[in-house]
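Fold this sequence, please.
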Amino acid sequence: MKTPVLFCLLFACIGFQSCKKNQNENIEKSTQVQTEKPLSVQCYKALYEQDTLELKMNTLKNGKITGDMEMKFFNMPKKIGKIAGEFRGDTLFISYTFIQGANKEITYKNPMAFLKRGNTLILGNGEIQTTMGSSYFVKGKPIDFERVKFKFTTVDCIDKQ
């Protein structure tokens, strides 16, 4: 009776340790990406009624996209965070990691898709699925870029300090 319990406990400990190792590698990779000097920096802004979204997008040498995004929705706490992703054709797929309001202890992470048309980025609406704490667009379900609220136009970049 004790032997199977010990084996299960041993396997669980090994599993947790390997997950932690991968997590440390991911943190190191994201730190390297953030320190890389961007090839270009573009800033965008989208307005819809009383809501404002601001996006600063850095294009890196390897084609990856990083940057910052701030979402201000009427009567809601401000969302401030980082983006990371890449273009697939004319569509930018990113992961938006952000905090909401003054609560800096809880971070959220959402997938987003933007269609690039000329100098405009259109924020798409798609069905999102969450599995084991990770959110992503459902495969096989189209992302709608026609009936949208937010269309980003280019603006001059202003450093906020």
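The longest strand covers residues 103-117. The helical segments are 2-35.
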